[in-house]
Amino acid sequence: MAKPEDDTLVHAGLKTPKSAAVAGIVFSLLMFTIFGLLRRSIPADPLESGAWLATDTKTIALALNLVPFAGVAFLWFIGVLRDRLGQQEDRFFATVFFGSALLFLAMLFAAAAVIGAVMLLASIAEPNEVMSSAIFRFARATAYILNNVYATKMAAVFMISTSTVVIYTGIAPRWIAFVGYLLALVLLIGSYYIGWGFAVLPVWVFLMSVHILMDNLRRPQKLDA
After folding, report:
1. 172-194 b/e with 16+ CB inside 10 Å = b?
2. Number of domains in the chain
3. What is the Cα–Cα distance from 225 to 215, expressed in whole angstroms?
4. Is residue 219 part of a domain?
5. Exposed, middle or buried: residue 223 (CB in 10 Å: 0-12, 13-18, 19+)?
6. What predicted TM-score, i.e. pTM, was given to this entire model?
7. Based on CB atoms within 10 Å of each CB, which residue in 12, 24, 175, 217 is the most buried?
8. Residue 123: domain span
């Protein structure tokens, strides 16, 4: 049977590094890059003709290959938040923000997979045939709805729940929580119509991560007894 002192030593060895908040900044920068690459290559209109299948596939492929790295960075950011909460973590809000974060990633990955599948199909067939097919129309609309409706709604829920935790625990300034509420409201009301809604969550994560990183670096290192 493990001794309490052994558990303490294990916990100390697994202590989150102060620089872990960089993960949120990395996630934000990756998402800005992905958004920029995709928006430069794929029109915002889900009913567009699909001419990008014959011209900008390399740029789009680069963006899609960055999505898994952004997902890993976001998971690390969630771990940083939970580590910062520590014993203050409320089970209800922790479940909501953790669940909404996972659903956001699931929708993001699903949308990327749909676009990747269309590109793969176009690479082995005539692009014009793919563009004129019902499969392309369905896949394009599916990716648009996954990203602009479901993923952004989960991002809004994540920001609302996390902002509420910020207010109750004080792990970050209250103004960051209020910014989170405002941005979440924008996503909940107009994500289907706002083309830049994809970039709202990275902006808020960037603000939160910069604060956590600066606060961690300001804290004096505690020497082991």
Report:
1. beeebbebbeebbebbeeebeeb
2. 1
3. 23
4. no
5. exposed
6. 0.81
7. 24
8. 22-213
